[in-house]
Amino acid sequence: MASTPSCWKNICFHRLLTSKLLVMKVAIQGELGAFSHEAANHMVPGCTIVPCARSRNVFDKIEQGAVHAAVIPIENSLAGSIAEHLDLLVACDVFIHREFYQRIVHNLIAAPGVKMNQVSRVFSHPVALEQCRNFFRRYHHVEAVPFYDTAGSVKHVIEQSLRNAAAIAGRQAAAVYRGKILKAGIEDDKRNFTRFFLINKRQRIGGRANKTSIAFQVKNIPGSLFKALSVFALRDISLTKIESRPMRGRPWEYVFYVDLLRGDDEAARNALHHLGEVAEFVKILGVYPTA
Amino acid sequence: MASTPSCWKNICFHRLLTSKLLVMKVAIQGELGAFSHEAANHMVPGCTIVPCARSRNVFDKIEQGAVHAAVIPIENSLAGSIAEHLDLLVACDVFIHREFYQRIVHNLIAAPGVKMNQVSRVFSHPVALEQCRNFFRRYHHVEAVPFYDTAGSVKHVIEQSLRNAAAIAGRQAAAVYRGKILKAGIEDDKRNFTRFFLINKRQRIGGRANKTSIAFQVKNIPGSLFKALSVFALRDISLTKIESRPMRGRPWEYVFYVDLLRGDDEAARNALHHLGEVAEFVKILGVYPTA
Description:
The structure is a homodimer of 291-residue chains.
Chain A: H1 7-18, E1 25-29, H2 35-43, E2 48-52, H3 55-63, E3 69-76, E4 80-81, H4 83-91, E5 95-103, E6 107-110, E7 121-124, H5 126-130, H6 133-138, E8 143-146, H7 150-159, E9 165-169, H8 171-177, E10 180-183, E11 193-200, E12 211-217, H9 224-233, E13 239-247, E14 250-260, H10 266-278, E15 281-288
Parallel strand pairs in A: 1-2, 1-3, 7-8, 7-9
Antiparallel strand pairs in A: 3-4, 3-11, 5-11, 6-9, 6-10, 12-14, 12-15, 13-14
Helix pairs in contact in A: 7-8, 9-10
């Protein structure tokens, strides 16, 4: 962050993105058709999705250069932060390029030709089933069957040509596996949003960047967090997120995750330089435009 | 917190707990044998568990006086905070009485008489299956089958007398459903701890209380969180947790969850009084002994 971003790199990156020859490969955790797939389509239109079984694999693929980027969920308005992804952002050599808020819409999806009155079992991830309780209350003869993954449950229902079953997943899963949406928007709470990050191996700070995500650690003494936050308060820099996470295997030591409403300007650079004086370590996770 | 706890109430509560006539009814979210059941056994030995399908039901039961207390998970060292429970602690009329850290140990459990070499399918909650990947790598012919609940998967395997299946859950689930532990401690990462709260309708501050959990909201202006935290820093009060959560339906407004390493002493009372001056609202979630 302290050094000015290389103009050359930015132009180069822009050319890669706009070139008709290059299709961006974007890794996601989960099956094709997952909510991360929907988010990736919004963030990198026309990209090729590379599904990975585990989050760790997604980060490995970026570090190894096997994909151009990845799209990962970082927090959900109902369920909170995805701690594993916060931890991986600190541990791995990656940078946030953009953020995106996606409304989570659950749909009832079945094989083509299947009618609602034929459905007696509905497959999905336990969290999705839980978020559609009103549906199961209304159709109380329908059994909720837990499955590994939302998109995976659609794949299962379609590939097995099940005539008495359906699955709950996002719209993208219906498109990928050629399922039919029997009912759209069956989630109980419409205020269900997930924040996604587009991450990349290379640090890049675009001209419109006005938000910065950082992680830092301070000494375990009274007032140390206060002193760390003073570097922002003294410069009237607003924070939009703060979260402490215990460090693995080091009880009573914490990493703090903070989002600032500032890009790569002088006040932010000074604040981060100042933070470097009072913190044990600071990592800039990304400088990007507010969604 | 500002008022001195009533001695009468404390003695009364203690008598209730030690009385041979009263068996404490403790609500948990999930099936009998869940990790919350194990935690409740540690926190309230000899209690009667009241299983509830949803977290909201657990809090309702306390508010209605249908149970004496509840034991709820609040954060896990690998997965982070349970946002729904943080939100419910603020929304409901309940107080934290104690905290407890439980090591999460996953066990392979089958019906009595079933041998390891007979097992071809293993049921459990997707998170538990994910935390035992090394087991599935070693026994690669064994299929991982997602289920609603860890303890529920043991109940299923035993009640159906499955001879070619097992389930992954805590030790308590084996005890409740009379299953046999085929392999103990099959989780990949031993640094897997969950922090539980014992919550109650009545506010109670014991003599050994040296930790306070609070939630507060500040105005959405630069430096407001800093000003709020200054009330603790000025009095050398250590914080062990801080987390911001967006307020439902109110974009850009946040509730902060903070744990202080202080009980009901003069400095803490002054700090919380001071916080009341600078914050929009403050709620004391509990004052209790550090685990």
